[in-house]
Specification:
This protein is mainly α. 70% of the residues lie in helices and 1% in strands.
Length: 378
């Protein structure tokens, strides 16, 4: 027998049959391994298929995408009323998308808010790349946030001034979430370390009181207190605007929850790591910065990202103090009598926007877990 024939026979023998490995084997083992599993699988396939077909019919096939307007700009939503309950009326998005995204920001200046959204997304993408994890990244953040502030406020470089009361929509949500998470994270680290500071009982008890007090009330209460009570503690004549008050409330609320997550990572670290750092003669802050905190934060990536996602969605609660975030702008857009019956379409679009941001954070955290997990296994 020739060597070619032997090689072909060996290659044939090494390939597993379809019923042992591959998609068919996986489905047989996980979806059709018994009569009960087969029945449940077929029932779920039927339900999912019917739901998907119904959604496609409603959202695309029978949908109305545009409605006519009179020469005076009056909208005629009769086409949407004729298919009520049968198809979606996406014309509400076409008519109100700018108000939903930018709120009460001046119509002719909304290009500035659009650039700010793009800058925020670019900043998030750059910060997610490990090759940019250097000291220069802090300068990139400062420069980008400065440009965003110039664009949103204006008043310089020929840009019209826009007060904060006119801000709203997605830029407001990104501002609250970005500053809230960026400033809550370092505060949470110090609070977590303070709660474990056995040699400083006053600091320890102060951190405990702060964490338990803030975690014991809902975010709405914190925002309300920040809006109403915070100005009472300021000097006479100094009255921060409601955006700053809401931002402080979000920072304090998020830091309390993150502090407990980080404390869990610090407690989960083996005692030998602390003893090894002490044996090297490192100071307390050197030990924490170089040895303890990197390992502790790596262990709590999933719950930390869970808090980040929750904080991003909780920014919608700022409507209680009259701030036009993305969700509030959508609700105001639906207040127009013409579009009051088409909230489903608007909320679906909002759900997609929130899902994109939250799922991006989730995927990125899973990538970090996998990467750091490989370094640990080595």
């Amino acid at each position: 027998m020739s060597s070619t024939t032997i090689g072909a026979s060996s290659a044939t023998r090494t390939q597993p049959p379809l019923l042992v490995a591959g998609p068919v084997a996986w489905m047989r083992a996980n979806l059709f391994n018994s009569w009960l599993s087969t029945a449940v699988t077929l029932a779920l396939i039927y339900i999912i298929a019917r739901s998907l077909i119904g959604f496609v019919d409603w959202a695309f096939i029978n949908a109305v995408w545009t409605v006519p307007k009179s020469p005076q700009g009056v909208i005629d939503p009769s086409d949407c009323r004729n298919i009520k309950g049968v198809g979606a009326c996406w014309a509400v998005i076409g008519d109100k998308w700018r108000f939903i995204l930018f709120g009460r920001y001046p119509f002719d200046e909304q290009w500035r808010a659009g650039i700010c959204i793009a800058l925020f997304i670019g900043l998030f993408v750059v910060s997610a790349m490990r090759r940019f994890w250097r000291k220069e990244l802090a300068l990139i953040w400062i420069a980008t946030l400065f440009v965003i502030g110039v664009l949103m406020w204006g008043g310089v470089l020929g840009l019209a001034f826009v007060p904060q009361d006119s801000w709203g929509g997605l830029p407001m949500t990104l501002i609250l979430a970005t500053f809230g998470l960026a400033l809550a994270f370092p505060l949470a680290i110090f609070v977590a370390l303070g709660r474990r500071a056995t040699t400083l009982p006053a600091v320890r008890w102060l951190c405990i009181v702060y964490i338990e007090l803030v975690r014991g009330v809902p975010l709405i209460s914190v925002l309300f207190m920040a809006s109403v009570m915070f100005p009472l503690f300021m000097p006479v004549g100094l009255n921060p605007d409601k955006l700053l008050r809401a931002q402080l409330g979000i920072i304090l609320f998020g830091a309390a929850y993150l502090a407990e997550v980080i404390r869990g990572g610090l407690q989960a670290l083996p005692k030998g790591q602390y003893e090894a750092a002490d044996a090297l003669g490192l100071t307390y802050w050197q030990k924490m910065r170089l040895i303890i905190l990197p390992q502790a934060l790596r262990m709590v990536i999933p719950p930390m990202v869970n808090n980040f996602i929750g904080s991003f969605k909780d920014t919608s609660l700022v409507l209680i103090i009259g701030i036009f975030d993305l969700l509030t702008a959508a609700k105001v857009a639906l207040a127009e009598p013409v579009w009051q019956g088409y909230s489903t379409e608007v909320y679906l679009v909002l759900a997609v926007i929130y899902f994109v941001f939250c799922y991006s954070m989730s995927r990125y955290s899973r990538g970090l877990e996998a990467e750091f997990g490989r370094s640990v296994r080595r």
